[in-house]
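Record filed here:
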Amino acid sequence: MKLEGRNAIVTGAAKGMGAAITRTLAREGADVVLSARDIAPLKEVAAEVGAMGREGWVIACDVTDDGEVREMVDKALEVFRGRIDVLVNVAGVTGPIETPVQDIDVADFDYVVTANERGTFLPIKYVVPAMIARKAGKIVNISGTSGLRGYPMRTAYSASKWAVRGITRTVALELGRHNINVNAVCPGIVDGPRMKKLCEEKAMVRGWTEEEVYDEYVQDMALKRVTTAQDVANAVLFLASDDARQITGQHIAVDGGWDV
């Protein structure tokens, strides 16, 4: 197992990619602190972690709240006896869909930027001291392919995902001397409730069917198939493992070739 005996924190662990990533880390031997705002689905995923013979601790946390993040990391350090090996920042929001820049509400823009940028920064801020003390650690941030190229009608979301890559590259430079790897996974469209919502809202604005919107995405991909949450989890596992020991400050696009 690639992560046997390791301790990991996953933010946004309740659903979708976060849940898939949590299960994958546990399957590969990690004990996991699962964090999100919604406790009920977290408990369900934690039960799955337990069924694999690993420990899963549920900690409610809003990753944009400084005090809550500090408290979440303190609790993680307590249950992990001071050692955090892996941090995966998944928590984030999508924001306005199919909305021209002039029509984006300022409050909506601020909400997306705060959730996706501050929500990546704060967990890193509070986890890093423990990693530095041990001279070891893996940080994996979930950015997105909209942080690799322009994404019309998604200004807030695209800006925030570019920022996550900026955080990743900068922190990698700071922490390399402490033997800490910092990388990002950039998913494209991922099959699940968020994609369904995206297709629904785009279809409504354009007067298309949901199937037409879905097919537009598929035709933009070199592989002509939509990414699954497990595809993303597999990339995270690679970056969190010793297989990626010499990789830092980089991003892996998991998008079926959308950004090619």
